[in-house]
Design a protein that fits this description.
InterPro entries: Memb_transporter_dom (IPR049453)
Low-confidence stretches: none
Shape: globular
Subcellular location: Membrane
Organism: Streptomyces laurentii
Strand content: under 5%
Helix content: over 70%
Radius of gyration: 28 Å
Largest sheet: none
Distance between the termini: 20 Å
Structural class: mainly alpha
Mean pLDDT: 86
Membrane topology: Multi-pass membrane protein
Protein name: Integral membrane protein
Order of helices and strands: HHHHHHHHHHHHHHHHHHHHHHHHHHHH
Number of strands: 0
């Protein structure tokens, strides 16, 4: 993709307004908390303290909107405390431009490295740096700085208290994640009726797993229906696939296929009902006809062998899902534990240290944002436009570790800032609102920001820019700065951000083959772990199979995210065409699916070992490890050991007396051959 087209696509994407479900009550709660803090501090301490406290409450409320499954009060408290500390330390060195720029560089670098922990932490850290640039200019003495920092922390405390006192759809994010996973399984069951080899995107299951991890305090209050349904959804997926598959399941046509379609339709209906019940905290409403399809004795007469076992297992699992989804029902406790924020600190430090290498996108982002923020602050100070913090604030807020988001947000922020600043400055200059009216207008803008922040970045920037203008007007600061000056500084910050990525990029496109190799290797480890348990039967609950499956899902999602980012980059990968990437993705996905079919029929604990299974597992592990290296080295992988084993089995040399394993080995080799063919394109 050329630079011109890349800029055009990212600009269009940044200005897109999405249709999302609005949450007016949650937005109203955040605005109410802001109003309480501003009104209290304005009445008792005056406009300047009110501005500081407003930024603390505003940022704390934004933290509670992040896509995080940690307790919302914890996020609000952490945001308010970190901004308070940043403000106070910033004021201590603010008297000296050089010292402040050193602190700004250090704070920005740490904020950039915090993206290694996750996007939620990265967003909060970037926002804190941006807000600090404003709040450090407000106090006039050391005592005043301490007071401002304290009121910023109070703002976070108030927002945290409101989340506790006015709970709105408690556990809503966790309910949505689990319901989305069950709904994805329902959709998968329906698609399998028409496409027996349909692919399944594991992202809903990965999201549900992340949502299921709780702190000890959360575990004591979590609703029972959120405990065990996720684990059942994980176990249902391979059973659905094995029932529908024409190679290892029922024939492509005939009475068995018709019964399989009926079972899949009933499974989709039951999973949808369970998803609705969990999402809304209601009893599961099922049609008797759907249950009758699963429980009819005709299934045992029509289906035989592996499909019959799959049908019986599916019925048992769906019964468990219905029982788990019932509000207040008995449920098994989940073993997923989320560390507290304090316990997370050493983990975050180790994660960030692992990114301290030249080729790391996180380190490159930290270097870029640090350079741009300090350069923008210096330019803003030198230029005769006043309040030069608008330039570095714009840079810090728009910069992300990848190209597309940085450029999308730069365009969106400039357009949003242009509209928001023009509107708010016009009101301030012509209406001359007093402190209380300016505070009211700021609260209204904050409500608009909270309400529409997920519909598009440009929409949110209109409100947040107006919010900043009204707050500065309330404190009497920035009244002499015009729309033109603020827009020019914002444009300067956006241009610096875009130039920094062009000069010091971290392109995802050249790493696509590495991501693909990681996914192939993870799939191979998963397949080998599954096959190994045919040699040593240990039942369905296997830690190594589970761990390799999770690694496979993580590698697949990393590949998909990398490919999506690479689509908008103005660079070309000479070793992997777009068509080859799509075909290879399909082949690797089908290879993992073949391994999943074998997982669905793992022998029970104590069953006799299957001869040849250990040899097949070792061949799979060896060829996929070497194949992954060859993919990274831009070579076409060959699967010699696996091919030799499968061909020997076909000649009757050491072939196991196990239809599923013999057929599964052939299917796995076919999919690996498709990987090689796709890479040869």
């Amino acid at each position: 993709m050329s630079w011109l087209r890349a800029l055009k696509e990212t600009a269009r994407s940044g200005l897109t307004i999405e249709r999302r479900r609005l949450e007016p009550l949650i937005a109203l709660r955040g605005a109410f908390g802001l109003a309480l803090v501003v009104g209290f501090s304005l009445t008792l301490f005056g406009p300047e303290v009110a501005v500081s406290s407003a930024f603390g409450a505003f940022q704390a409320a934004i933290a509670t909107f992040q896509r995080s499954y940690r307790p919302r009060p914890t996020l609000a408290l952490a945001s308010g405390a970190s901004l308070a500390a940043s403000t106070f330390i910033g004021y201590l060195v603010g008297w000296n431009l050089l010292l402040f720029m050193v602190l700004l560089g250090l704070w920005t670098f740490l904020g950039g490295m915090s993206w290694a922990v996750g996007p939620n932490v990265g967003v909060i850290a970037a926002s804190n740096v941006a807000m600090m640039l404003i709040t450090v200019t407000l106090p006039g003495s050391l005592a005043a700085a301490a007071g401002h920092a304290a009121m910023i922390a109070v703002g976070g405390l108030v927002q945290a208290g409101l989340v506790v006192l006015l709970p709105i759809r408690a556990w809503g994010a966790q309910r949505d994640a689990l319901a989305d996973a069950l709904a994805a399984e329902a959709d998968y069951a329906r698609r399998l009726r028409h496409d027996p080899t349909a692919d399944f995107d594991p992202l809903p299951l990965m999201t549900a797993r992340s949502a299921a991890a709780v702190t000890r305090r959360q575990a004591r209050s979590r609703p029972a229906e959120l405990h065990g349904a996720r684990g059942l959804a994980e176990r249902i997926r391979p059973v659905l696939a094995s029932l529908a598959d024409p190679a290892l399941g029922v024939p492509a046509e005939g009475p068995q296929r018709d019964r399989a379609r009926e079972l899949l339709a009933a499974a989709g209906e039951i999973l949808d009902a369970a998803a609705h019940a969990i999402r809304h905290g209601e009893p599961v409403a099922l049609r008797p006809a759907a249950l009758a399809v699963l429980r009819t004795p005709d299934t045992g007469a029509i289906l035989t062998g592996a499909p019959r076992r799959a049908a019986h297992r599916l019925a048992a699992l769906l019964d468990d899902v219905v029982e788990e989804a019932a509000p207040g029902g008995e449920a098994a406790q989940s073993g997923l534990r989320r560390p507290t924020l304090v316990a997370l600190v050493p983990v975050a430090i180790r994660t960030a240290q692992a990114e301290l290498r030249h080729e790391s996108p996180i380190l490159r982002h930290a270097v870029r944002v640090t350079t741009v923020a300090t350069a923008g602050y210096a330019l803003g100070t030198v230029l005769p436009l006043g309040h030069g913090y608008w330039a570095p604030m714009a840079s810090v807020m728009v910069m992300r570790p990848d190209f597309s988001q940085t450029y999308e947000r730069s365009v969106a922020r400039f357009i949003g800032t242009l509209l928001g600043v023009a509107l708010a400055t016009g009101i301030v200059e012509f209406a001359h609102p007093g402190a209380y009216l300016s505070a009211l207008l700021a609260v209204v803008c904050a409500f608009g920001m909270y309400l529409l922040m997920r519909t598009g970045y440009a929409t949110g920037q209109v409100f947040i820019s107006a919010y900043v203008v009204f707050l500065l007007g309330m404190g009497g600061a920035g009244l002499g700065q015009t729309v033109r000056e603020r827009v020019l500084l914002t444009l300067l910050g956006g241009i610096l951000a875009m130039l920094a990525y062009a000069v010091y990029p971290a392109w995802e496109t050249p790493r696509l083959r590495s991501r693909l190799g990681d996914w192939l290797k993870a799939d191979g480890q998963y397949a080998a772990a599954v096959v190994a348990h045919y040699a040593e039967p240990a039942g369905p609950a296997l830690a190594d199979v589970r761990e390799t499956l999770l690694a496979t899902r993580a590698a697949r999602i990393a590949w998909q995210e990398a490919q999506e980012r690479a689509t908008h980059e103005p660079v070309r990968h000479r070793g992997l065409s777009h068509a080859a990437a799509q075909d290879t993705e399909e082949a690797v996905s089908q290879f993992g699916r073949a391994a999943m079919l074998l997982e669905a029929h793992l022998p029970e604990r104590g069953a006799p070992p299957v001869p040849g299974a250990a040899e097949l597992a070792e061949a799979l592990r060896k060829v996929t490890e070497r194949g992954a290296k060859e993919v990274r080295d831009r070579k076409t992988p060959r699967w010699n050991e696996l091919r030799a084993l499968v061909e020997a089995w076909e000649r009757g040399e050491g072939a196991p007396d196990h239809f599923l394993l013999r057929k599964g080995a052939v299917l796995l080799l076919e999919k690996l051959d498709e990987v090689s063919e796709a890479l040869d394109e």
